[in-house]
Amino acid sequence: MGAWNINYGTDLIASMSQSTFANDTNNNSAVTNNAGSSSDYAKILAEKVSEINEQFEDMQKNSQSRQNSQNSSPKNIETIKRFMPDGSIMITTYEDGKISSRIKKRPHLVPVADYSKPSVNGETAMKMVQQFSLADLLMM
Asked: Would you say the pTM of this structure is higher than 0.85?
């Protein structure tokens, strides 16, 4: 909204200066005698307004070129998933060859009967086995 107000103000000033300059160029002797100094003012004002408009346009072009140059170099992002010997999953994310994040997901262990071990009191021995849900594997 602020840029719009500036543009509106400069357009208004430019149009007024041009209309004053156009009125001064007529061959009315009464107008030229009284408004001779205002035509000089109108010329100076029109020059200043055009300079301000050019500077404003240059600033806009420079800011757009800076934004384009910052967005022109995309980062190379790579995600690697590793299954570790203990059953955990390590997810490493690299940005331009450097580690940006590392997540280690431990497995969900479930007790399972182990019939290969001898039982002492007639009870079956238990062992802990990792169990991954399909949702956990897909989310990574």
From this structure: no
**What would the DSSP string read from start to end of the chain?**
-HHHHHHHHHHHHHHHHHHHHHHHTS--HHHHHHSHHHHHHHHHHHHHHHHHHHHHHHHHHHHHHHHHHHHHS---EEEEEEE-TTS-EEEEEEETTEEEEEEEEPPEEEEEEETTSPPSSSPPEEEEEEE--HHHHHH-
pLDDT tens for residues 56-108? 888 888 888 777 766 666 778 899 999 888 878 899 999 988 999 999 988 88
Query: Tokens 């200066």 belong to which residue?
Result: 17
